[in-house]
């Protein structure tokens, strides 16, 4: 199994637009489907409730690591932490890095999620598989959000 997920997409939007979609907590919440309680701040935990149908009971938690304007947004979290009543706090988190690069008038967004080798073996493969699939969906959701190609992003 791989230790890292990598996704790359070219978005028909300037870097400033993609940056806003990633780092404004309301915009991030719109395409990622999470109702966040407040703005992203490096070193602080971002908390909200998932708004995907069937997953509304899940509290989304991530610690913002880096916000390097229009270049890198990163956070750590516990991947596929959805089992009711399970406290994932003792598990090592994975690191999600969202890199932005101008490509003419467009933006290349590269996502890397690493650290799966530290996830407990009992759930490592499922967490990797679910996040790999999920990031594929989320990359399409951010495309639709910043390009305005759909009224509402969907899970496909």
From TrEMBL:
Keyword Phosphoprotein: no
A Pfam family matched in the record: AHSA1
Keyword Glycoprotein attributed: no
Residue span(s) of domain Activator of Hsp90 ATPase homologue 1/2-like C-terminal: 12-147
Annotated InterPro entries: ASHA1/2-like_C, START-like_dom_sf
GO terms of molecular function: methyltransferase activity
GO biological process: methylation
Alphabetical UniProt keywords: Methyltransferase, Transferase
Family statement drawn from the similarity comment of this UniProt entry: Belongs to the AHA1 family.
Full protein name: Vanillate O-demethylase oxidoreductase VanB
UniProt organism field: Rhodanobacter thiooxydans
């Amino acid at each position: 199994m791989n230790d890292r997920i990598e996704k790359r997409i070219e978005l028909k939007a300037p870097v400033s637009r993609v940056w806003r979609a990633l780092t404004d907590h309301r915009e991030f919440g719109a395409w990622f489907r999470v109702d966040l309680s407040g703005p992203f701040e490096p070193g602080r935990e971002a908390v909200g409730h998932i708004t995907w149908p069937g997953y509304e009971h899940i509290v989304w938690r991530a610690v913002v690591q880096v916000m390097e304007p229009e270049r890198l947004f990163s956070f750590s979290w516990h991947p596929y932490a959805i089992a009711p009543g399970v406290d994932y706090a003792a598990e090592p988190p994975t690191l999600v890095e969202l890199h932005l690069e101008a490509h003419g008038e467009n933006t290349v967004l590269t996502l890397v999620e690493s650290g799966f080798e530290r996830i407990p073996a009992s759930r490592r493969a499922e967490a990797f598989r679910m996040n790999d699939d999920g990031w594929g969906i989320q990359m399409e959701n951010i495309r639709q959000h910043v390009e305005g190609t759909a009224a509402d992003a969907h899970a496909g």
